[in-house]
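Protocol step 4 of 5: obtain the predicted structure for the target chain.
Materials: sequence only (see below). No template structures provided, no constraints applied. The aim of this step is simply to have a reference model before the mutagenesis design in step 5. Sequence pasted as it appears in the construct record:
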Amino acid sequence: MKIAIVYDSGYGHTAKQAEAVAEGVRRVADAQALLIKVAEGDTPWETLASSDAIIFGSPTYNGSLSSRLKKFMEDSTRPAWLPLAWRDKVAAGFTNSGAQSGDKLGSLIAMALFAAQHGMIWAGVDMMPGRSANEMNRLGGWLGAMAQSDDVSPELSPIASDLQTAAHLGERVARLAGRLKQTA
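Step 4 output (structure tokens):
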């Protein structure tokens, strides 16, 4: 089972979050995580079409997705949207910004709407918000995994609980994709 993680990262913090999502995917037997960084050349459209799920990730800049993830979305029209190549695939999203809120919900809504336009099945975070910095889902994201990063090296930020939330989302998507694959 292939789970694609399509993401952009400006400074490395969202890449660290993407790696945590991939770690969660790998917790599920027979699940393979494919990290696809949109800034690194041509998009592997055939790989995405053959994936069982696609998880989207972007930093939140000024309340919105990065321009590179937006370009990926626009570029998907001919190879993926017109033929509905991603119909019935599980989709999910994650985002990161420097502020506690930082309007991350706007980025997740944009990802969920994009997935809906492709006929995908959206999976959010299935856990109650944490009440401290040490608890998972501390930022209270229901629509996707949220992280907050200080203006420091990605080795220091985002914090462990945000990365654990991202890993949980990756594991959840892999489990859901596996269930759907069994019933197909």
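Step 4 remarks: DSSP finds six helices and six strands in the chain. Helices lie at 13-26, 45-50, 67-75, 77-81, 104-117, 160-183.
Proceed to step 5.
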